[in-house]
Amino acid sequence: MDMNGDHTHHTHGSESDPPASHGMAVVGNGTVFMSHLPMIHRPHNYQVILNVSLGSLDSAYLDDRKAHPEARLYTFAPEPFVLPDLFPGETGEPARRSFTGSLFRNHFEQPPAHPETPFEISSDVTVDVVDVIVHNRFTPDARQPEELTYILFGQGQERFLAHRITGPFKPTNRQEFDHLVAVDLQGPQMSDGQLRHGVEVTVTGRSNEPGAKLRETEKVAAVAVVDGRNVPVEIDVRSEEYFETDDLTPAPH
Questions:
Q1: Digit-coded pLDDT (tens) for 169-203
Q2: Which of 21, 39, 81, 136 is the most buried (most CB within 10 A)?
Protein backbone atom coordinates (compact mmCIF):
# COMPACT_ATOMS: atom_id res chain seq x y z
CA MET A 1 0.00 0.00 0.00
CA ASP A 2 1.22 3.48 -0.87
CA MET A 3 1.58 5.14 2.51
CA ASN A 4 1.92 8.52 0.82
CA GLY A 5 -1.68 8.71 -0.34
CA ASP A 6 -2.16 11.31 -3.05
CA HIS A 7 0.98 13.21 -2.08
CA THR A 8 3.50 11.05 -3.92
CA HIS A 9 4.01 13.77 -6.54
CA HIS A 10 3.92 16.75 -4.22
CA THR A 11 4.18 20.33 -5.42
CA HIS A 12 7.22 21.67 -3.65
CA GLY A 13 6.29 23.34 -0.39
CA SER A 14 8.26 26.49 -1.23
CA GLU A 15 5.10 27.62 -3.06
CA SER A 16 3.01 27.41 0.10
CA ASP A 17 4.93 26.53 3.26
CA PRO A 18 7.48 28.85 4.86
CA PRO A 19 10.81 27.60 6.20
CA ALA A 20 10.56 26.27 9.76
CA SER A 21 12.50 24.17 12.25
CA HIS A 22 11.02 20.70 11.88
CA GLY A 23 12.04 18.67 14.93
CA MET A 24 12.70 14.97 14.39
CA ALA A 25 12.82 11.85 16.53
CA VAL A 26 15.84 9.69 15.66
CA VAL A 27 15.79 5.89 15.82
CA GLY A 28 17.96 3.03 14.65
CA ASN A 29 21.00 1.15 15.89
CA GLY A 30 22.31 0.46 12.38
CA THR A 31 20.53 2.43 9.72
CA VAL A 32 19.45 5.87 10.96
CA PHE A 33 15.81 6.92 10.60
CA MET A 34 14.11 10.22 11.42
CA SER A 35 10.43 10.74 12.16
CA HIS A 36 9.08 14.29 11.95
CA LEU A 37 7.48 15.54 15.19
CA PRO A 38 4.23 16.87 13.74
CA MET A 39 1.77 19.48 14.91
CA ILE A 40 -1.75 20.17 13.75
CA HIS A 41 -1.02 23.55 12.12
CA ARG A 42 1.00 24.62 9.10
CA PRO A 43 3.81 24.26 8.30
CA HIS A 44 4.23 21.30 10.68
CA ASN A 45 1.12 19.35 9.61
CA TYR A 46 2.90 16.40 8.02
CA GLN A 47 3.76 12.86 9.00
CA VAL A 48 7.20 12.20 7.52
CA ILE A 49 9.58 9.28 8.03
CA LEU A 50 13.07 9.39 6.51
CA ASN A 51 15.94 6.98 5.98
CA VAL A 52 19.00 9.19 6.47
CA SER A 53 22.74 9.33 6.80
CA LEU A 54 24.57 11.61 9.23
CA GLY A 55 27.80 11.21 7.30
CA SER A 56 30.86 11.11 9.54
CA LEU A 57 28.60 11.63 12.58
CA ASP A 58 26.76 8.32 12.11
CA SER A 59 29.35 6.73 14.41
CA ALA A 60 29.01 9.47 17.07
CA TYR A 61 25.25 8.87 17.21
CA LEU A 62 25.54 5.07 17.26
CA ASP A 63 28.34 5.14 19.85
CA ASP A 64 26.28 7.43 22.10
CA ARG A 65 23.35 5.00 21.88
CA LYS A 66 25.60 2.14 22.94
CA ALA A 67 27.06 4.18 25.81
CA HIS A 68 23.62 5.24 27.07
CA PRO A 69 21.22 2.28 26.78
CA GLU A 70 18.94 3.99 29.31
CA ALA A 71 18.21 6.80 26.84
CA ARG A 72 14.94 6.10 25.05
CA LEU A 73 14.82 9.14 22.81
CA TYR A 74 17.18 10.90 20.46
CA THR A 75 16.09 14.02 18.58
CA PHE A 76 17.27 16.40 15.90
CA ALA A 77 16.72 20.18 15.86
CA PRO A 78 17.17 21.40 12.27
CA GLU A 79 17.91 24.83 10.97
CA PRO A 80 14.75 26.21 9.31
CA PHE A 81 13.90 24.65 5.93
CA VAL A 82 10.83 23.87 3.82
CA LEU A 83 9.84 20.32 4.73
CA PRO A 84 7.99 19.43 1.48
CA ASP A 85 11.14 20.30 -0.49
CA LEU A 86 12.34 16.82 0.56
CA PHE A 87 9.41 15.15 -1.22
CA PRO A 88 9.39 14.01 -4.87
CA GLY A 89 8.14 16.80 -7.12
CA GLU A 90 6.43 16.65 -10.50
CA THR A 91 9.59 15.22 -12.05
CA GLY A 92 9.96 12.65 -9.30
CA GLU A 93 12.96 14.48 -7.87
CA PRO A 94 13.01 16.52 -4.63
CA ALA A 95 14.06 20.16 -4.48
CA ARG A 96 16.56 19.28 -1.74
CA ARG A 97 18.17 16.14 -0.36
CA SER A 98 19.73 17.39 2.87
CA PHE A 99 19.29 19.68 5.87
CA THR A 100 21.43 20.75 8.81
CA GLY A 101 21.06 21.11 12.55
CA SER A 102 21.90 19.71 15.99
CA LEU A 103 21.67 16.14 17.28
CA PHE A 104 20.58 15.49 20.87
CA ARG A 105 20.23 12.66 23.32
CA ASN A 106 16.74 13.13 24.84
CA HIS A 107 14.22 15.69 23.61
CA PHE A 108 15.88 18.98 22.63
CA GLU A 109 12.85 20.99 23.87
CA GLN A 110 12.50 19.04 27.14
CA PRO A 111 8.66 19.13 27.15
CA PRO A 112 6.71 17.84 30.19
CA ALA A 113 6.23 14.41 28.60
CA HIS A 114 10.01 14.10 28.10
CA PRO A 115 11.66 15.84 31.07
CA GLU A 116 15.11 14.29 30.69
CA THR A 117 17.91 16.84 30.31
CA PRO A 118 18.88 17.20 26.64
CA PHE A 119 22.52 16.56 25.77
CA GLU A 120 23.87 17.97 22.52
CA ILE A 121 25.96 15.38 20.69
CA SER A 122 26.83 17.74 17.84
CA SER A 123 25.69 21.16 16.64
CA ASP A 124 27.12 20.79 13.15
CA VAL A 125 25.28 17.88 11.52
CA THR A 126 24.35 17.51 7.87
CA VAL A 127 21.53 15.04 7.30
CA ASP A 128 21.54 13.42 3.86
CA VAL A 129 18.17 11.91 2.94
CA VAL A 130 18.57 8.41 1.51
CA ASP A 131 14.84 7.70 1.15
CA VAL A 132 11.58 9.41 1.99
CA ILE A 133 9.65 6.47 3.45
CA VAL A 134 6.44 8.32 4.22
CA HIS A 135 5.21 11.85 3.56
CA ASN A 136 1.62 12.71 4.22
CA ARG A 137 0.02 16.11 4.79
CA PHE A 138 -2.90 16.28 7.23
CA THR A 139 -6.12 17.45 5.54
CA PRO A 140 -9.49 18.47 7.03
CA ASP A 141 -11.31 15.73 5.09
CA ALA A 142 -9.04 12.89 6.23
CA ARG A 143 -10.66 9.72 7.54
CA GLN A 144 -9.22 8.15 10.68
CA PRO A 145 -8.86 4.37 10.62
CA GLU A 146 -11.28 2.74 13.05
CA GLU A 147 -8.73 0.12 14.05
CA LEU A 148 -5.24 0.70 15.47
CA THR A 149 -2.97 1.30 12.48
CA TYR A 150 0.80 1.66 12.22
CA ILE A 151 3.44 2.08 9.52
CA LEU A 152 6.16 -0.59 9.54
CA PHE A 153 9.63 0.49 8.43
CA GLY A 154 13.21 -0.62 8.94
CA GLN A 155 16.27 -2.09 7.31
CA GLY A 156 18.39 -5.16 7.90
CA GLN A 157 17.34 -6.77 11.17
CA GLU A 158 15.69 -3.67 12.66
CA ARG A 159 11.95 -3.03 12.54
CA PHE A 160 9.96 -0.05 13.82
CA LEU A 161 6.30 0.88 13.92
CA ALA A 162 5.03 4.46 13.73
CA HIS A 163 1.38 5.12 14.52
CA ARG A 164 -0.35 6.29 11.36
CA ILE A 165 -1.45 9.89 11.97
CA THR A 166 -4.26 11.22 9.81
CA GLY A 167 -6.43 13.71 11.69
CA PRO A 168 -8.77 15.50 11.26
CA PHE A 169 -7.99 17.30 14.49
CA LYS A 170 -11.39 18.12 15.94
CA PRO A 171 -12.62 17.79 19.53
CA THR A 172 -15.33 15.43 18.23
CA ASN A 173 -12.77 13.05 16.70
CA ARG A 174 -10.62 10.49 18.48
CA GLN A 175 -7.42 11.88 19.98
CA GLU A 176 -4.50 11.51 17.57
CA PHE A 177 -1.09 10.45 18.86
CA ASP A 178 2.50 10.16 17.72
CA HIS A 179 3.97 6.79 18.73
CA LEU A 180 7.19 4.99 17.79
CA VAL A 181 8.07 1.48 18.94
CA ALA A 182 10.87 -0.95 18.13
CA VAL A 183 9.51 -4.40 17.33
CA ASP A 184 10.30 -7.92 16.24
CA LEU A 185 8.01 -9.47 13.66
CA GLN A 186 6.98 -13.08 13.37
CA GLY A 187 5.58 -14.35 10.09
CA PRO A 188 6.64 -13.86 6.48
CA GLN A 189 9.81 -11.83 6.35
CA MET A 190 9.78 -8.57 4.41
CA SER A 191 12.66 -7.32 2.32
CA ASP A 192 14.27 -3.91 2.62
CA GLY A 193 12.68 -3.12 -0.74
CA GLN A 194 9.18 -3.91 0.55
CA LEU A 195 9.81 -1.70 3.59
CA ARG A 196 11.29 1.15 1.57
CA HIS A 197 8.04 3.13 1.49
CA GLY A 198 6.44 1.70 4.61
CA VAL A 199 4.01 -1.16 5.13
CA GLU A 200 0.62 -0.56 6.71
CA VAL A 201 -0.04 -2.78 9.73
CA THR A 202 -3.45 -3.00 11.42
CA VAL A 203 -4.08 -4.49 14.85
CA THR A 204 -7.54 -5.81 14.09
CA GLY A 205 -10.24 -5.49 16.71
CA ARG A 206 -8.33 -2.79 18.60
CA SER A 207 -9.50 0.82 18.76
CA ASN A 208 -7.36 3.52 17.16
CA GLU A 209 -6.82 5.66 20.26
CA PRO A 210 -3.97 6.38 22.72
CA GLY A 211 -5.30 4.08 25.43
CA ALA A 212 -5.11 1.14 23.03
CA LYS A 213 -1.56 1.80 21.79
CA LEU A 214 0.99 -0.98 21.60
CA ARG A 215 2.88 -1.49 24.84
CA GLU A 216 6.32 -2.82 25.71
CA THR A 217 6.67 -6.62 25.94
CA GLU A 218 3.25 -7.03 24.34
CA LYS A 219 2.71 -9.65 21.64
CA VAL A 220 -0.23 -9.09 19.32
CA ALA A 221 -1.61 -10.48 16.10
CA ALA A 222 -1.93 -8.01 13.22
CA VAL A 223 -2.39 -7.80 9.47
CA ALA A 224 0.23 -6.25 7.17
CA VAL A 225 -0.50 -5.11 3.63
CA VAL A 226 2.45 -6.46 1.63
CA ASP A 227 2.48 -6.02 -2.15
CA GLY A 228 -1.30 -5.56 -2.07
CA ARG A 229 -1.95 -8.70 -0.03
CA ASN A 230 -3.13 -9.01 3.58
CA VAL A 231 -0.50 -10.99 5.45
CA PRO A 232 -0.97 -12.18 9.08
CA VAL A 233 1.95 -11.24 11.34
CA GLU A 234 2.73 -11.29 15.05
CA ILE A 235 4.20 -8.17 16.62
CA ASP A 236 6.58 -8.46 19.57
CA VAL A 237 7.04 -4.96 21.04
CA ARG A 238 10.61 -4.54 22.30
CA SER A 239 10.66 -0.90 23.40
CA GLU A 240 8.75 2.36 23.21
CA GLU A 241 10.86 5.06 21.56
CA TYR A 242 8.45 8.01 21.62
CA PHE A 243 4.88 8.93 22.59
CA GLU A 244 3.15 12.31 22.34
CA THR A 245 -0.40 13.63 22.25
CA ASP A 246 -0.15 17.32 23.22
CA ASP A 247 1.13 18.52 19.83
CA LEU A 248 -1.78 16.75 18.12
CA THR A 249 -4.54 18.03 20.40
CA PRO A 250 -6.87 20.70 18.98
CA ALA A 251 -7.50 23.80 21.07
CA PRO A 252 -10.88 23.75 22.84
CA HIS A 253 -13.54 26.04 21.43
A1: 988 889 999 999 999 999 888 999 999 999 999 99
A2: 136
